[in-house]
Amino acid sequence: MIQPWPLLLIPLLAVLRTATGASVPISIDVIPGTTSSSPSVAQFSSLSSGFDAPKVKSLNSTSFDWWYFDVVSSDLDYSLVVVFFTADATGLWTGTTDVGTADYVAISVTSTDGALFNVGVLAEELIVVTIGDGSSGILDGTLTGWTGSPDMSQYEILVDDPVSGLQGTVSFQSIAPAHFPCAPATAPAGQPLNLGDNFELGWLNAVPDANAVVDFDFNGTKVQFSGSGYHDKNWGAKPMYTAVKAWYWGHARFGPYSLVWFDFVAPDGTEQASNYLARDGEIMTSTCSGLSVRAIPESIIFPPTPASDPPQGFTITADIEGEGVLEVQVTHKQEITQETGTSLRWIGSVTGKLGNGTVYEGTALYEQFTFAT
After folding, report:
1. Residue 9 has pLDDT above 80, yes or no
2. How confident is the model at residue 373 (pLDDT cuts 50, 70, 90)?
3. Strand partners, 283
4. How many domains in the chain?
5. Gap between the Cα atoms of 133 and 221, Å rounded
6. Would the pTM count as exceeding 0.85?
7. Does 321 fall in a domain?
8. In the prediction, which pLDDT does 2 show?
9. Are strands 271-279 and 166-174 parallel, antiparallel or unpaired?
10. 5 within some domain
């Protein structure tokens, strides 16, 4: 298990790095909860390290940067979504609540009976330490944050919030390598980090699939489950609702496969996609081509709009070079998030096969986003 709060060890790490000549880069970012009046600058090209580091400098009221984590239980009875935000409401989408600070975490857990709890923890600063490629962050003045190993193979979320009565941890042991939108994370520096040509929306997937364990206590009620975990991040230097028109996104585990799909539409109507598949922990494809995600039933027109009927599921097809066509069907088990006219998120079951291979079953967590641009 990763020891929490490496921030306490920053001075020691710096000394050791200097003394030993270690080459692992270390960076520290302090992100104020009061946004800047200066223009924001977003990073859209990869560097040789800092994969999961903050990507927006001088965060202002129309920019955003966040770290997203989720877990879907193996039996589809539970789900967890945790998002550490650095954004004013004006940097996100219509209807976002202004919580009085740009730095906060939103935590939600659902069961088959519906939402078990929705908790928010606010702070005046978010402190993020990046060692190698992995990030760790803490909401200043709280005992709530996350830790990541330098190679991003392990992450842990720790929550201790006396106000809500929520305490506990979420651990992630990655079983699928990280990737850029169009290439594995091992690709040389200079990879595009934005979603598609001319998009001003960044996305990185540090943990496409993980063995995850949730262990929470909410005012005396134990919430414990395990399943498939996931972690990514999004960012941009302009309001999110102006950077993209719609998307279908999700991740699934079935048999030996870990799948991540991201089919998105620019404000001008251009469709592009990120296509990722790993088998037994080895990347089979990580590209920006060969993927199609469509709603069930077929009568639902693509791309979705805020007025579209909710889909009943999704069909996913992806070209896997040298292996054939991946065919996946996703069926809802439960709606876990609904923001009218903007987002729908579900957990569900999947069936999938590659080429003429075995049909496998598994679990998925996925969403539809639409923006009235």
Report:
1. no
2. low
3. 278
4. 1
5. 36
6. yes
7. yes
8. 44
9. unpaired
10. no
Could you identify the residue written with the tokens 């296509």?
275
Domain contains 4: no
pLDDT of 344 strictly over 70: yes
What is the distance, to the nearest Å, from the Cα of residue 328 to the centroid of all Cα atoms in its chain? 21
User: What is the Cα–Cα distance from 89 to 96, expressed in whole angstroms?
Assistant: 5
Tokens of 209: 């699939």
Q: In which element (H, E) is residue 12 found?
A: helix 10-20
Q: What is the DSSP letter of 342?
A: T
Tell me how far apart the alpha carbons of residues 126 and 307 are, in angstroms, rounded to a whole number.
Answer: 36
| Helix%, strand%, coil% for the chain, nearest 5 | 5, 55, 40
Q: Name the pLDDT band for 5 (thresholds 50, 70, 90).
A: very low
Q: What is the pLDDT of residues 57-97, one digit of tens each?
A: 999 999 999 999 999 999 999 999 999 999 999 999 988 99
Element (H, E) at 243: helix 240-243
Q: How many Å apart are CA 144 and CA 107, to the nearest integer?
A: 11
Kindly state the tokens that stand for 22.
């270690």
Identify whether 20 is part of a domain: no
Domain range enclosing 296: 25-370
Run of H or E residues at 14? helix 10-20
pLDDT of amino acid 371: 84
Considering only 3-17, 127-141, 179-193, 291-305, which range has the smallest mean pLDDT?
3-17
Separation CA 368–CA 304 (nearest Å): 8
Nearest to 310 by CA among 281, 343, 283: 343
Beta bridge partners of 353: 327
Tokens in use for 147? 């830790």
In terms of Cα–Cα distance, which of 133, 129, 161 is closest to 146? 129
Give the residues across from 22 on adjacent strands.
none
Confirm if 369 and 244 have CB atoms less than 8 A apart: yes
The dihedral built from the CA positions of residue 302, 308, 312 and 313, taken in this order, carries a sign that is positive
Q: What is the CATH number of the domain that holds 299?
A: 2.40.370.10
User: For residues 350 and 360, what is the distance between their CA atoms, to the nearest angstrom?
Assistant: 8
Lay out the sheet containing 154-161: strands in order across.
26-32, 125-131, 134-139, 145-148, 154-161, 166-174, 202-218, 221-236, 64-73, 78-87, 103-111, 114-123
Which of the 8 DSSP states describes residue 18?
H
Tell me which residue has tokens 């946004």: 35
Task: Find, among 344, 370, 279, 368, the residue nearest to 318 by Cα.
Answer: 279
- Report angle CA 38, 235, 330 to the nearest 5 degrees: 160
Confidence of residue 14 (pLDDT cuts 50, 70, 90): very low
